[in-house]
Each structure stands twice: as C-alpha cells, then as structure tokens.
Protein 1
Amino acid sequence: MSGSADRGSRRLLVTGADTFWGGRVAQAFEADPDVEVVVGIGARDPSVPLERTDFVRVSDHSYSTVQRIVSATGVDTIVHTGVMVDSTLGSSRLHDVNVIGSLNLLAAAGAPGSTVRALVVKSSGLVYGATSRDPYAFGETMTRAMPARTPVERSLLEAEALVSDFAHNNPEVTVSVLRFASVLGPDLSTPLSRNLSRRWSPSLFGYDPLLQFIEQGDVVRALIHAVRSATPGTFNVGAPGRVPLSEVAEICGTRLVPLPPWKAELVSAPFTRVGAFDLPPELVMLLRYGRGMDTKRFAETGFDYRFSSVEAIHAFARAIRLRKGAGRPAESYTYQEDLEHFLRHANSVAHRADEPSTPA
C-alpha cells in the first residue's frame, strides 16, 4: 500500500485463494480489523475455511474475468499467491499459471480506472537456480550463474519479468516481490518435505549441500508484513542459518539414499513411480549444490522470523512424529458452497462469521 492509502478502508484481492498459501493469507486478513473487504479467487474450492472472504471460483484467469472482478470490487491491494513452485503438480500447467495468469492479472491491475495501488507477489528462490558457480548467498540484485534449465525456474523468471515491467509502467502502484527459501511446516506438502517425512530420502553421492529454510507460518507473516509495510522492491525471505542435508535428515529421522549425481533422475525413476521418492529436476540441483540467500534487506523493513532454519526443521520433525504416532493423516477441510452461503446469509444464523458477537 502507498503511505497515503486509507488503512481503515483497505480492500484486498488474494489470488490462488484455493491454494495452501492463498487460503491462509486470506484467513490472516480476515482477522485484521483494518481490512474492510477480502476477495479471493481460485480455480478450485478453498482448501481452508474462509469466514468473511468473498470467494469466486473462476475456471480461467483470463483478462476479462480478472478485470471484471478487480473493477467490481474496487480492491486497492492484490496479494498474488497463485504462482506455482512445485513442478510435480504438473509441469504443463506452469506456463499457463505462472506466466499467462500473471500477465492477465497485471493487465487487470493496470487497466484504466483501476483502483489497485499495491501489489505483493509470492515468488521463490528457485529464480536463482543452484549450480557450482553460485555465491555463498544470493543478494536480490544478483543474477543466476547459468540459464534456467527447468520449466518451473523459467516460468518464475518470466513472471518476475512481467511484474518488473508492470512496476516500471505503473509507478503509482507499490510493488513488492518476495522470494522465499525452501518452506517446511506441519501442513505443507512439497517434494522436499515429502521426502524428509519418509523413512528413506534421496541424496546425491558425494554431496552434502547447505540448505536454507523458512517455516510455513513465517511465510504468511512475511506476506502480511509486505502489505502493511508497503515497501517496494524485491526481497529474499529465508530464516537465519543454513543446515547440511545430512543434519536435516538426522533431525527428521530419515535415512539418506545416495544416488549417482549425474543420473539421479533416471536411477530414481522407478522409486518415483511407486511414490517412494519425489525428485523433480529443480530438487536434484538443490540436493547437489544447495542455495543460500542474503535476507538483510527484508529484515531492514522490520520483519523478524519466529523460527531459524534449524528451528523450522525441528518443528517439522516434531509434527512428523506426532502425526505418525497418532496413526492418521492430518485433518482436511472440504468446502461446501451451500453451507457457506447459509452461514453467511441465513436469517436464522445468530452471529455471522463477519459480525462480532456481542459480549454478555
């Protein structure tokens, strides 16, 4: 948000509100009394309960669809969480979601008469890649050492280029891009976290890379902070410290299976097919070289992490043990449109989700 924005009438649009991150960001803003309206869009049903978010299921994120929503709701802030960073969810969707989806969103945000004055984009440290030529820690102004080799990295770079162009062409909009380190958390499922939660986890023979993490709650807090602090620019966001993969595995209670470093994907293919490993190409490079990011710039905006990298690993490991000890998977939420409509609009509901109850 710009510094002159009326904080008491903030109106937000959260893209990817049907995803892990979008749903949790929407939930956080629902609890913020300075936020008047929360609008969420997504291609599927929400994955978490939303109390006062106006959720719109859109089958496509075409310009006309997004522009109509932005125009009708008069949102002043967009939090773009709908960017995909996990290629195992379908590499064919990466370009459509990350590039075309971002392009249409930015066109809607910059359309004539648009009320949008702030844009926060959730990106990833994957834009830096992972090679033998990398610095110890990437700063935001550094470029990757070698061209992008994987579809997810290419799509993220293209999406960030579109955001950069948008910021240049729309100086009245405060644009913040957050590049997150690898995320761990009790509820999040990624190729790396799935491997670490199993009895056996892949590694590359002769390599013990240093890994930087961020806890899932700190990711949501960072996105909220970016909206509230209204600081433009690109920021690396990762918890303090880096931990060798061997130590990560020991904390999580998994045994590393060393694979040939130059044929890892081929050798692991049978294990991947039966669900024993998750090893997309971007993870192979991370398990070889690791990745570190300099996060001083984001700390200078006033953000502090609740978990260091090693603390995030320990918290994740505790959650794994508790879940295995309970002998059941984590509870899931199923969105029911008719029920949501009833709870929001029926006269028989004593206190609707968006109305505070009166104390006795």
Note: The domain at 8-327 is CATH 3.40.50.720 (Rossmann fold).
Protein 2
Amino acid sequence: MKKLFALAFVALAIISLTRCSKKDTETPDEKPEDDNKPKKEENMRHVIENDHLKVEVSELGATLVRFIDKKTGQDIVLGYDDDDAYLRNAFNLGASIGRNANRIENASFMLNGKQIQLTVNDHGNQLHGGGKEGFAFKHWDLVSKSDDEVVFSYLSRDGEQGFPGNLKAYVRYKIENNTLLWEYSGESDEDTLFNMTNHAYFNLGDETILDEYLHIDSDKYAPTNDVALTLDEVRDVKDTPYDFTQFTRVGDNLSKIDNIDNNYVWETMGDKLMAELKNDKLKLSVYSDLPDMHLFTASNLNTDTGKGGEPYKSYGGLALECQFFPNGINYGDKYILPILRKGEKMCHYMRYELEGVE
C-alpha cells in the first residue's frame, strides 16, 4: 500500500509539473506579432529560483545557461558568459535543438508520399535542424515569466531549413523543489517533423566527467557509421563500452573507446528514468516521456572556452539528449516517429532531479 501511495504521489507531481500530461496541450497566452520582423532587441536572460535551485535561461536558442544547486553552489551545466560565444557555440551548449534533433541521412525524407529535401550541414546529412540556422541560434520570444517558470516561443516558417509547415514552437522551463523541467510543444499548419531536445552538457563539479559515475536504464544502443549517422540497427550493450546498466565510472568505459556519440534505445513513450549521473556530492536523475536518449561524451571539447574564460578539457561534460530514434523517419515504421500532424499538438519533456549525496 505504501508503494502504491508513493507511485501515486510521483504521478501527481509529474502532472503538476508538465502540461504534456493534459489531454489537450495548452497554448500559452501571448500577443500576436510579426515573427519575421528583424529582432533588434537583445537576447535577454531570465532567472528562476527557489530554495533548492537557481536556473538562468536565455532567449537566444531558448538556452539553459546555468543550473545551480544552491546548497553546494555548484553550476552543473557548461556554457558561456555572453551572446557572442553562444552565436559561435559549435557544441550547442545548453541549446534547445529543432526542428529535428540529431542527423537525417542525405538531408531528406519521405512524408505523405513526397520527398522532402532539407539543407545540408554535416557530411551530406542534416544535423540538429540545420546547425547555425536551426532553433539553437534563433531569438525566442518571451511569452511569460514568473518566479519559477519561463516560457519562450518561436515561429518557424514553412520551408525553413526545408521543413514543411508553419510551426509555432514553445519551450518551457519550470522548477519545483529540486526538479527542473524542460518541455517543448507546438502546432503546425502542415504535417511536419518535430523532434526537439535540450543539448545541455552536465558536469557535477569535477575537472572532467571521467571520474563521475553514469547509469543508463537501457541495455540497448544503436551503432553509427563513420560520420556519426545512427544506423538502422539495435544492439545489446553487454560486454561493450556502451554498458552503463549499473553505475559505472565514465572513464572506465572510455578507456576502451575514444568517445560515445550513440543513441540508447527504449522505444516506449511515457515517463521513465533514463539516466543518472553522480559524484561524491551530487546526483542528477534524468526522466523523460520521449522514446530514446543520445549520449555524447565530448572527447573534443578541449577546442572550446567556457564561462569565466576557462578552457574546457576533453570530456569536460556529457550530453544526455532525450529524443526520437535518430534518422528513424528514413527507417520505415520500425521506430516511433516524430511526425506532427496538421492542426494537432505535440508536447514532450525532460525532467532533471538534482539531489545531494550523503
């Protein structure tokens, strides 16, 4: 009985935190405007906080800039001090990625019997919605702001980076107790792809993530080709460097392979634990209703300089990108597809719980 009560309490907490659990996704109230007009205003930053967390987000890319545990004072996400650096942002630190996260082979796909050609930005493929022309580098309008919540919106016009339909997208950040919610939602006037993720890189306060411990609650991953395109194949992680089914020191697995840039597979919708990262002070738990999660361990991060002008090191952080199966649209109906139908609403989320380690 106690276990059932605890599960019911968790379910109610999720419902209160995310709009995605509601039958009809709410569209935030906002003033109508011409979204194609030049943006002369600066990309403002906004802070939300409570007794446990302090979070800073930017209108540039609807980006997560800081995620601070107030008890330890530790900022657990990588980032930059100013917009100029975020406009370069080769690693998409903290950015809201769209319209489509990850890679689409040959930058094209079939939808409703029609071949859709996208812009190319990565070895003949499209990555993260078009790179420097994707959502991560756009100005997002502020819809609403309170002490514990910020909502942004962006109108992606029909044909932008090749995607069909005028898509009105929303990103919502909300904190409650020791939990940060990142949620995306949207509606289009044509069928389109809508597969966003947040590209935060996490480090719980160590020089690199090699000495941190990672648990991924999946025993399946997808291999990639030589240009990091996810293949139409699912493998077991057992006896491979991709096995994080138990808490494992990240450096132990990366001693067997230079970098991990792979999709972990659940292919189920609904709220679930996907990953946990911990050191001797903090533990981060990542939950999502999205079907899969991409792990990137950033071996090449030593080419970048972050907050305070400090150079990042190789493996300075890792990304836990909850999303749909990469390039799944080109693999038939084997995987859950991120197709947003005309006039319908889509809403998904990632939930980050941050707690101290005793």
Note: Residues 2-17 form the longest helix (16 residues).
Protein 3
Amino acid sequence: MKMLLPLLVVAALFALAFIAGPAGAGWLFGVALPYAALALLVGGLLYRVALWARAPVPFRIPVSCGQQASLDWIRPARLDNPRSAAGAVGRMAIEVLLFRSLLRNTRAKQTADGRLVYGTDLALWAGALAMHWAMLVLLVRHLRFVTEPVPALVLAVERVDSFLEIGLPAVYLTSVLFLGALLYLLGRRLANPLVRYVSLPTDYFALFLLLGIGLSGFAMRHLFRTDLAAAKELAMGLVRFAPVVPEAVGGVFFGHLFLVAALAAYLPFSKLLHAPGVFLSPTRNLANNNRAVRHVNPWDYPVKVHSYEDYENELREKMVHAGIPVEREPEPVTAAVLVGATEPAASADTQDPAGRV
C-alpha cells in the first residue's frame, strides 16, 4: 500500500492533464498551474533557506572521520577533517560532485561465522551519481526551450549527449541513464527488505514522479513526436510573461508539464530539498579547527552562578561534622575566643552606679 497509493496519485495527475489539457483546459495546465508551482518553489526555497540560515550555530560541529590536525609528525586528513576554509570547500566539492559519503559503510551483512561486516555499496553510489548527473544534463539541455538564441554551451552539451547517434531522432545518453538509475533505485527499495521496511509513501512518490517525468519526456521525443516548435512557443511565453497556448501542443506534453509543476511545488516541502540544504549544513561546511582556535558562544550573557567554593564556605562546618571531605579545613578557634564566648556577662544586680562590678 505504501507503493500503490503514490503510483496511483502520479498516474492520476498525468491522466488528468493528458485528458483535460487538449479538451479546453490548456490555459490551466499550461499557464496557471506552472506559474503557481513556480511561486511555491521560489517562496518555499526562500523560506526554508532563511529558516536554516537563522538557526544558531555558536560552535564548530563538523562531522569528520579522518585524523585532525595536531602534532607536526602526525599526518592529518586534509579533506576528511579540514582545518582551513580551503579544505572545507574541497570537502564540500567532493561531497556535492562525487557523493563521497555514499562510499562509507552504506551496506551491512552477516557472514557465515556470525560476524557483522560493513562495506561500501558501489551500486547505490553509482546509481545515485548517475541519476543526479543525468538530471543536471537534462536541465541544461532543456534550456533550449527558454532561450533564444540557444547558448553555444547548450548546443555543445546536446551534441556530446547524442554522440552515439542511435535512432532518429537520436537517443540521448542521459535520458537512458536517468531512467535506468531511477529504475534501479526503485528496484533496490523493493528488493531489499530492510530498505523496504523503512520506506515511506513519500519516498515512492518522489521516485514515481521523477519516473513519470522521464518516461513522458522520452515518449514525446521517440513515440508521439510532439511539435517542438509549439512547445518552445509555450515555454518562451511563460518566460517572457506573455503566455500563449498553441493548439499543436498535445496531451502528453500537458501531462509532462503538469508532473514537472507538481515536482516543483512539492520540492520545498520534501526531503528532495537536500540540494541547497547540503551547503548550509554546519556538520559539513565548517573547518574543524577546535584545537587551534577557541570558539566562544556569541550569545553568552552574564549568569549568576553559585560555585563550589561558595557552597563549601557556607556549609563547611556541617560537611566536616558529617564526615564529608572538604578542600579547606575550617579555621581553628583560639582559646581567647572560646573564653570570651563562654564567660557569663555581669548582671545588672552586681553593678554599682559607676558601672563597676
């Protein structure tokens, strides 16, 4: 049920736009909903980033797994445990571009003799890396629909992406990688009982949404042959805030665009927002120089405290009487003090008018 409901929701979203778009609701699915999704995306991103930026981080709390810089003769891990800002930037770059954290103890299994062994799940790392990089190239390629003239970089990316020249129109390599990586991630979530147990409906919803976008885009290019000129006219109208809905745009395009709008609206409120969040994570974007620099909490304010010394001064005699050890023994009482404390005072009956006893 955790998988079936998200699948039905994504299928219903596509079917709704596929049927209603060409039937007279093209302005709704081609203009109104994309603008609303864009507003939710921008507003949600700004809200979440502002919320993260306001979170107090008074101390350095980087999560590190390498040797920290200490003595000169001990070799430090300059990227795993960076001491400088340059090292922190290098660590972030490796994490963002190569997903290095996925290469560390992401799989556990029990051996025949009962030992629990941790290792690297290379398939998970390769699948996640392929999906994210392919999605980035897909976004770059789609810039040709919202730019005129098309930048040379976008054209170069298209030429490299279709260098195999398979089919007509040519099959893009990133399209195959994107769909294949998504199918692997979905299959892993279904085949692994541990991963399947911890999976939530939102996890399946994100995968099915991305799969729906990828499959509908692949179908438009290779199966149903959508009018690319009409699609670019609609996209350029949205960018220039002069929207127009050409009649040549078909139902598959409306379904594809509606799924993209749903993903954009869903992104700020889901775990998919780790893209900007990784740059604001204090466990990764800070240098670990706690041994070299003393960091003082800037929000500290004077607090009236009751030290142990004050506590002992007040209760020293009682502590000694109870047999509790103290740091400073009580001062000895002199004989003169004892005599003065024990001698009875002269009464008024024994005193003469002059005050003599």
Note: The chain has a mean pLDDT of 86.
Protein 4
Amino acid sequence: MKSADEILMNTVISTVLKAGDILRSGFRERFEVEQKSAHDLITEYDTAVQEFIVEQLSKAFPGAGFIAEEEHFSTKGDPLLVIDPLDGTNNFAMGIPQFCVSIGVFTGDKQPKGGVVYNPVLEELYHAQVGKGAYLNDERIFVSQEPLKDTLVATALPFKFRDKVEWITQLLMSVYPEIMDIRRLGSAALDICYTAAGIFGLYFEYGINAWDTAAGVCLLREAGGVSVDFFGQPYDPFTSRSLVAGQPTHVEQVLDLWRKSGFELKDKD
C-alpha cells in the first residue's frame, strides 16, 4: 500500500504532466501577452495553468495551501504547494523551448517533502521525494563530480533589479576564469534541475522567489547538492533572495572566490 506522501507526490506529478500538456498545446501558437511589469511578461497560459493546478490539487487535497506566482496567490494549509505555472514565461512568449511547470511540496510549516519540474517540449520530468533520491523521468540523477574548471555555470541577470546588474556582472566575471563557460537560459527552475543532473556544475542568481526555486532545491539536495545564499547560509526559498546551488565543493569554491574578491555580498535589496 502506498504511503500518504507517495500518493501526494504521484498526484502532483500527474497534475504537472497535464499542466505541461496545456503549455505544449499553446507553444508557438497565437495567444495574449501582457506586461506584468517592466521587462516581465505574462501570457494567458500562465493564468490558465495556475488556475488548472490549484483547482485540481484543491480537489485532491481539500486542506492544501498554495503559494503561486500569478497575482501572488497565497493560502495556508497542509500540504503547502508552491507553484510556478510557467517558469520561463519570456521564453515561452518568444517561442524558445526553455520553460517548465514547477511545484514544490511542503508541510504546512514549510518543511520540504518533494519537488516536481516538467519541461513539456523536451518531455523531461524532474522529480524528487525527500529521502528517496532525485530523478529525470525514471533515471536517478546526481550533481556533477567534475572539477569546477571543467563545468558550465548557469546564472541570470537580475532583470527586475536593473540597478544590481553591474554588481552581478562583477561576481560573474570573478568566477569566469575558473570555469568552462557561462549559460543563461531563462528558467531558474530548469537551471537548478540541470545542476542537480550534473549538466551544470553550479547555478547562482539574485532576486528570486519561492516559486522559482522551491521544487528545484529539493531535487538538488536529493541529488547530492547544497543550496546556500550569497553569504553561505542555508538557502530558504521563503526568505532568501540569493542562491548558490551545486555540488558542495563547487559552491564553496565560488563563495571563496567572492570573499577574496572583496566584492560586496548581499541577500536583500
């Protein structure tokens, strides 16, 4: 007989796959696009998928609470489901196949239980349940064991915090001589999953939210990685604004580079 947590995670996975079908059906089709804020788009699919997920999981788990991106939707409950219905909206809107559905699963007091991230174009389903490992579809995944110098590092410029771009660029350039190359793909959730799968050696970003990272950091931990803020303190998706994620040795190497560089490090605005 399946445990309550297994039933919960299987239901979340099933819902994410169906939500991915909705996104795939609209990809590169005509749809409404609006500006949520400067440089930040929202499509009719962001809203439709979020409504679909909340409706489906509310029926399955009447006591559930939600934290979701669109309109900063938030309710209390157990389990607590942290939803990004379309991470990589700008990519989706521009026809770039680098986007996903992401759901982090927590207890009512915000202890992690699992995470699910799905790229419907590539049909890549990343999923993890605490204590049971991380998977890409049916294959177990682990963080990279290659030296940092032989890996790609993912990041993003803080497009919502344009005054921080120069600072982040300085941090990036201090790391660049010590790695193979940089990637900036436009979906935080997928960047973290790629790090969990050993595709990237490390990921860092400033100015992120719980729905961007809640699923991914659980996957990362189950794949043998760690997640901290720019000070090296444990990353909390509900309070931290900065994230460094990857294989423990890689994370410490990058933090050490930043400390020696003399650049200002911060986790808040």
Note: The two ends are 48 Å apart (CA to CA).
